Amino acid sequence: MDKKMSIMVVDDEEIVRESLYHWFKKYGHIVETAASGFEALEKLEKYPFQFLFVDIKMPGMDGIELLEKVKTEYPDTLVIIITAFGSIESAVKAMRIGASDYLLKPFKPDQLSLVMERISHQKKLVSEYNYLKGRLDKISRFDNIIGQSSAMASVFDIIQEVSQSDTSVLLIGETGTGKELVAKAIHAKSQRSHLPFIAINCGSIPDSLLESELFGHQKGVFTGATHSRKGFLEVVSGGTLFLDEVGEVSPKMQVNLLRALEEKKITSIGSREPVEVDFRLISATRRNLEKDIDNGTFREDFFYRINVIMIEIPPLRKRKEDIPLLAEHFLEKYSQETTKHVDHINRDAMTLLKHYDWPGNVRELENALERAVVLSKSRTLGVEDFSFIQPSGIQFPQSLSLREMEKGYIKKILEEKNWNITQAAKVLEINRVTLHKMIKRYHLARPIH
Amino acid sequence: MTPSKKCIGVVPFGDVPVIALKIIAAHISVYFDLLPQILPPLKLPEHAFDQKRLQYDAGIILRSLESMDSNPCEKVIGVLKPDLFVPIFEHVFGEARQGEQCAVISLFRLNKNPDGSFPTTAIVYERAAKVALHELGHLYDLYHCEDEKCLMHFSGGLDDLDATSLYLCRYCSMYLKYNISH
User: Fold this and answer.
1) Which of A48, A95, B122, B142 has the fewest beta carbons under 10 Å from its own?
2) Which residues of B touch A19 (CB under 8 A)?
3) Which residues on A lie below 8 Å from B86 (Cβ)?
4) What is the reported pTM?
5) DSSP string, A51-119
6) Is the pLDDT of residue A137 over 80?
7) B126 is catalytic
8) Interface touch B144/A1, C-beta < 8 Å
9) CATH number of A144-314: 3.30.70.100, 2.40.30.20, 3.40.50.720, 3.40.50.300?
10) Which CATH architecture has domain A402-441?
11) ipTM
């Protein structure tokens, strides 16, 4: 039996609560009591009890109803039904719904010990199952990139393909979409995976320093160069260099990098001796580089050199079906990191997360979950825990009628889903026929390009 | 009156053989190194008797012990001959609330072996001493122990009770010393 378990005794009879409370205390368990099903649910919201001992006959919410709610909201919590002789039928029903065991009142003290041993064993099996299930869930993950949407499935396919070659890859995506994770995944799957992966954020380093960081410098070549230093292009030796925010690199530096890519040789600042380098380049940007080429701020030859294969990482608002999976992942991550017992997101909160546009993408979602877990006083995150999220959506004037709002919202979702009826109907949680009817009713039409 | 430290009261409820009380007291002195004191007998509270179950409610007896006037001891163990129960269980050999002041034990089920035979008086009193020491352990906040030989191991029946020793395991012994001194 586990050394210490968390147990709640739910019974309207004080004497039963008291007896079981004192009994479990003798084993050093964490014990709580509740006089009704409602009180039990309130306490479960705040603390994740492992076991519930529930009396079947209680006024208000009976044991069966409580069991149903617990199994829906907190499936990991094991429920043991306590019943008096004569209500065996209810006990059988409870077992069918998902009770772990039942006890007939009054029972022998060692019967309770046996039940505890049995359910502890069952709990262990459940943990093992969850572990295995967790491993299976990882099928939805791809080297720490989480997503089961069709948009991400295409990204995973491209990653798989490009990782086998040595060509330069350009990752396009808004801030927070996980460009570095994709770069790492490509590296991890490539033949260079045992060699270094070096990431440099070009946007955060001044041009003069970036040159020194990439190409290295000789001792005394500028103020502060107290010793010679190898550049990352040399240090990476055989690995992968990830240049984030490559759109911020100055045209002069673009020339230097272009030469390094073509000649596979670099010369550190202050040196005349070129050094051979070998690296795979992955670049990333959130800018429209083609526009920058038109503006003359980005070199076309460099663009084509770094952009042999382009991978576009979709923003989170275009793969909203991944939000629950991501939210659960971050919930688990921060629940463990903060050691707070927060393990649920209620339906309303999940709806809020799904309908928010996430301009900061996955990073913003991660930060939101971290903040909610840290500040939450309950084990279930509700809408109030995400009050800092300002639902974006389309802005409607206050005088808009319900009909106009509905029309506007349907139009927005259709546009977001590129008029894919199946996908839009899924987001709107209506069937396709209803959506067609609404399109007709509101005279909505697909724009002609 | 302020309870004097380390004094353990042994209180008979109704007609309890004096020899049983003396043996329990001697075991408390030897095995727990505490100072037992046999207190004057108390009357069994009538309202503790359950007419349906024909047993005494251990919880009610504990409450009557707790409200006992002029109790000179830090902990008190009540001893009675009739059978004891707590509402959820068919019976109990004894009952104590974790870390509290009073416990109660019954001699009723100790004088008949599970196979129907009758044990010697020595065995009956040794069983009584084990139950009393086990409940006293709970009063000093010891939990049920997983070590089957330890006095604090839970005994559901007489077979289990006979299998446990009068000694505490290393850990329970350590906790007992600590809890007594604090």
Assistant:
1) B122
2) 59, 86-89
3) 19, 23
4) 0.53
5) EEEEES--SSS-HHHHHHHHHHH-TTSEEEEEEETT-HHHHHHHHHHT-SEEEEESB-HHHHHHHHHHH
6) no
7) no
8) no
9) 3.40.50.300
10) Orthogonal Bundle (1.10)
11) 0.75
